[in-house]
Amino acid sequence: MKSIILSMISPLLIGVALLPGSSTFALDKVNVTLPSKSFQFIIFPLAKERGYMKEEGIDLDIVVMASTPSLQAVLAGEMDFTGSGSGALVAVAKSNAPFKTVLAVTDQVLQWLIVRPQYSTFKELKNKKIAPKYGLDGNKDFTFLALPPGQRLAALQSGAVDAGLLSSEERFAALDLGMKEILYLGKEVKNSWGTVATTDQFIKAKPKVMHGFMRALLKALRLVKQNREVAMDTMMKFSGLSKELAARTYDGMIGTFTTNGVVDEETQKNDLDIVREVFNISKEVPIERAYDFSFAKKADSELTQAGWKP
Hints:
The chain is α/β, with parallel strands linked by helices. 45% of the residues lie in helices and 14% in strands. It has helices at 2-14, 43-49, 52-55, 67-75, 85-95, 149-158, 168-176, 200-205, 207-226, 228-238, 243-253, 265-278, 287-290, 294-305, and strands at residues 28-34, 58-64, 81-82, 99-106, 112-115, 163-166, 180-184, 193-199.
């Protein structure tokens, strides 16, 4: 089972291998790049629209950018944070890049294996174009096609592939088209998702901004978990979802959201172990080299002690 899950997760990682003030003072400009407008990232526009960032002395700018250029932009200092935390882990493990993952929105991998209507089990997929399970060899029984997330549903519809790993939004669209769901990766492996990373240099140079940034995001995270209507409204505006799809997405995924932007050490180790296995990296990567949740923990503690509620 482990090797099979790795086979399915590998394309996700390989694709990314190729960061309280007063209104009387100037706000600190913070630039964030996100890989998509998926549900797990709505805390960013929400933190901006609700004024949480401004309360912390931050003027937030959000840019949607593919993982690899986003990591390059953060390293170059052109962006401050990236929502491609998994890509940052790959860079740390492969080349000791100076990244730290500082926030995790969810504690499950939000990817579903969806198959065309004629299939119902993994064994029926033998000699087809996707990963296996239950007695099938992922290296022998299937053909893997590297397709970016936005093209997988179309490939399924056209018959170019027999199965594909889809995001939450693509998943519901596929199910409505008669496709079938046979695996949810979030239940197969304990890993983080929707992770945010920045550089060691930014953390060291701007601890006050780090602190305020975390406070604002955790306020938004608490709001999303407690207020379904607000979260749905933000999804409709930010992600362009219909009200029905926003409701289905929220109800199906809100249980995966972390309470404080932090995942435990077992999850952190699992994240790094998968990266090492996918890229055949023998050297151990200490979790403290790749993660720094201290700002999220401190912000959460402060908000709790102050009795802050949305």
